[in-house]
Design a protein that fits this description.
- The protein starts with a helix and ends in a 5-residue tail after the last helix.
- About 6% of the residues have low confidence.
- The longest helix is centred in the last third of the chain and has 14 residues.
- With 271 residues, the protein is an alpha+beta fold.
- Helix 6 runs antiparallel to helix 7.
- It has eight helices and 16 strands.
- The protein folds into two domains: 123 residues, no CATH class; 122 residues, Mago nashi (Mago nashi protein, 2-Layer Sandwich).
Length: 271
C-alpha cells in the first residue's frame, strides 16, 4: 500500500482540507489518544479501500476526511465524516463499509487502547472496464516472467524507485526519498512470481488501456509492466482512478510491492 501514502501526500487539495477542518471543528476534541493517517496506514488490515468508485462522482479530487474511534481490538466503533457537501451526500452509502474496516490495535506504552484515528476516502468515478478483450498468454509451470513497477517524482517527497520481480529474482533501484538508494537484489520463489502473473491474467491486464492519465499536475506516475514468455504489456497510471481506471491495476501495483517487500528499502529497518 505504498500508493496510499503517495496519493494522500499528493492529492490533498487546500480547499478540501480547509472544508474538512471547518467541519471537524464542530466535533469535540477526542478523549482518546490520537493517531494520524500515516499511523492509520501502517495499521490497516486488508481489504481496506481508501479509493472508492461511485456512480455520480464527478471528475477530480473528491475526498472525505474521517475521524474514527477504534477499539483496543482494532474494530471501528464510530466514524465521523467531514468534507464538502457534494461529497458528504455519499456518506450514508460508505458508512457501512467503513464500520467494517479492521486495524492492528493501536498502542500506548505497549498496551492496546481505544484510539481516535484520522483517515481519508477518495471518491472517484465508476471503473471503465475494457470493452475489447485481448487474449493473454498462458502462465505455465516453467514460464519466464518479468514484472516491473516504477514510481516517479511528485511535487513533494514521494518515494522514487523501480522494482523488478522476475523468475530470476528481485531488483530494486532506489532513486530519491527512499532509505536505500541504488541497486539492491534478493531472491524470490519463482512459483510466487508465476502466481502473481496469473493475477495479472485474471485481471484482464492485457486488455487494459496503455495509459490512464488525469489532467492534473505534480503527482507521481506509476508504470506497471509484465512480460510472460516474451508477451509484454505496460500500463501507465497517472492518478488513473480519476479517469475510471479499474481498481485492479492499483491492486496489482500493491501486489508487486508486497512480493518484493519494497518497504524494507523505502522505509529502512523497522524498530
Amino acid at each position: 500500500m505504498i500508493r496510499a501514502i503517495i496519493s494522500l501526500a499528493c492529492l490533498l487539495s487546500s480547499a478540501g482540507a480547509r472544508a474538512a477542518e471547518e467541519k471537524q471543528s464542530a466535533y469535540p476534541s477526542p478523549a482518546y489518544p490520537a493517531f494520524d493517517y500515516q499511523a492509520a496506514y501502517a495499521h490497516e488490515i486488508r481489504p481496506h479501500r481508501r479509493t472508492i468508485p461511485l456512480a455520480g462522482v464527478s471528475y477530480g479530487g473528491n475526498q472525505l476526511r474521517l475521524t474514527l474511534t477504534v477499539s483496543p481490538a482494532g474494530d471501528v466503533l464510530d466514524a465521523k465524516p467531514a468534507g464538502e457537501e457534494r461529497d458528504l451526500k455519499f456518506w450514508p452509502d460508505l458508512r457501512p463499509e467503513v464500520l467494517r474496516w479492521k486495524f492492528i490495535p493501536f498502542e500506548v506504552d505497549g498496551r492496546p487502547v481505544t484510539a481516535s484515528v484520522e483517515e481519508y476516502i477518495d471518491l472517484v468515478p465508476p471503473e471503465r472496464f475494457p470493452s475489447i478483450h485481448l487474449p493473454a498468454p498462458t502462465v505455465r509451470p516453467d514460464s519466464k516472467v518479468d514484472i516491473t513497477l516504477s514510481r516517479s517524482m511528485c511535487y513533494g517527497r514521494c518515494p522514487v524507485y523501480k522494482v523488478s520481480v522476475s523468475t530470476r529474482g528481485i531488483v530494486f533501484d532506489g532513486e530519491a526519498f527512499v532509505a536505500a538508494k541504488g541497486r539492491h537484489t534478493d531472491r524470490v520463489d519463482p512459483s510466487a512470481v508465476r502466481a502473481l502473473a496469473k493475477k495479472f491474467v485474471a485481471a484482464d491486464f492485457y486488455s487494459m488501456r496503455d495509459e490512464y492519465r488525469a489532467s492534473v499536475t505534480d503527482n507521481s506516475t506509476f508504470t506497471l509492466s509484465i512480460s510472460i514468455d516474451g508477451h509484454k504489456k505496460q500500463v501507465v497510471d497517472y492518478v488513473g482512478q480519476w479517469t475510471g481506471m479499474p481498481a485492479a491495476i492499483v491492486e496489482l501495483e500493491d501486489d508487486v510491492d508486497a512480493l518484493a517487500q519494497t518497504e524494507r528499502w523505502i522505509k529502512g529497518p523497522q524498530q
